[in-house]
Amino acid sequence: MRGSSQPLGRSPCRRDGPRHVVVRGMIALAVVVACGVAGCGPTHGQLVEFLRSHELVTSTGHYTVLPPDAITIHAPAAPEIDGVSQTVRPDGKVAFRLLGEVQLAGLTTKEIAEKLEAQLSRYYVEPEVVVEIAAYRSQFYYVFGQVARPGAKPYTGRDTLLKALADAKPTFLAWRSQVRVVRPSPDEKQRKIIIVDLDEMVRSGDVNRNFLLQEGDIIEVPPTPLAWLGLRVRELLYPLQPAMRTYQEPTTVIRATDVYEDGFDTGSDGD
After folding, report:
1. Which residues contact 80 (CB under 8 A, 6 or more apart)?
2. Residue 257: what pLDDT?
3. Which residue intervals of the chain bear CATH 3.10.560.10?
4. How far is Cα 81 from Cα 71, in angstroms, rounded to an integer?
5. pLDDT, tens digit, for every residue of 82-119?
6. CA dist., res. 164 & res. 171, Å (int)
7. Banded pLDDT at 232 (limits 50, 70, 90)
8. What pTM was computed for the model?
9. What is the pLDDT of residue 215?
10. Which residues pair with 130 in a beta bridge?
11. pLDDT at 130 over 80
12. Where in the sequence of the chain do the CATH 3.30.1950.10 domains occur?
């Protein structure tokens, strides 16, 4: 046993350098995060609150038109406006032949149709008007986190959570069982948060929790605990990347210099 200087009770392969301490600390933090979030599925009361808020907004007929939404008018009895598509101006008005400028901002498509029917009745007998949204441009919901297509998404009044996630395409880093939906409000008491298990919804086919979104809803798809740890390690190593690139670049610089010198020498021989 001569020559051994390893203290008793300490493994010769164990290292307690700062890097290992940081990694162990991050692993412990990831475990705490996982334990804090897992099992936080929506309660019955939370789900009822999200569903109840959509009882009056269940179709595009109740969509509120605002600038710069675009609408299309269908009025078979009134060829002057039948098939016309118009964008609502910043002042909330739309200009039509025969009717002139009409204030439409803040009205639903059904209310717009009724207003146009009332004005057309001066020229036609019982005109029928149908209004549809040609382009949704004024209202949005938002998707963030581990998805391929994050950002603001046009709100149509018929956007479900499942459709929004399918369009956003969660990545392999996504913690699909802990999707977080936030319903913001200036009033703190009116703000709502719910966590939905997308995997369970897809696996079981239970779409009872596939509620309609509201304008302004925020969907966050967090990373899994392991992905979260990897992202934090990458964040810690990010400041070191310029130094690593500098260490690798001299070889490329030397080769470029060699090419330059060869070209210069060739030009000299030509003289």
Report:
1. 96, 97, 98, 99
2. 55
3. 40-57+139-228
4. 12
5. 999 999 999 999 999 999 999 999 999 999 999 999 99
6. 14
7. confident
8. 0.68
9. 92
10. 74
11. yes
12. 65-135
Query: d(Cα 26, Cα 227) in Å, to the nearest integer?
Result: 12
| The amino acid at 29 | L
Convert the chain into a string of H (helix), E (strand) and C (coil): CCCCCCCCCCCCCCCCCHHHHHHHHHHHHHHHHHHHHCCCCCCHHHHHHHHHCCCCCCCHHHCECCCCCEEEEECCCCCCCCCCEEECCCCCEEEECCCEEEECCCCEHHHHHHHHHHHHCCCCCCCCCEEEEEECCCCEEEEEECECCCEEEECCCCCEHHHHHHHHCECCCECHHHEEEEECCCCHHHCEEEEECHHHHHHHCCCCCCCECCCCCEEEECECHHHHHHHHHHHHHHHHHHHHHHHHCHHHHHHHHHHHHHHHHHHHHHC
**Quick one: fold of 65-135?**
wza like fold (3.30.1950)
Segment 159-200, tens digit of pLDDT:
999 999 999 999 999 999 999 999 998 888 888 999 999 999
Backbone φ and ψ for 176, nearest 5 degrees, come out as: -70, -20
Q: How many residues does the chain have?
A: 271
Amino acid 207: pLDDT: 79
What is the third-level CATH fold of 40-57+139-228? Outer membrane lipoprotein wza fold like (3.10.560)
The residue with tokens 């789900």 is 47
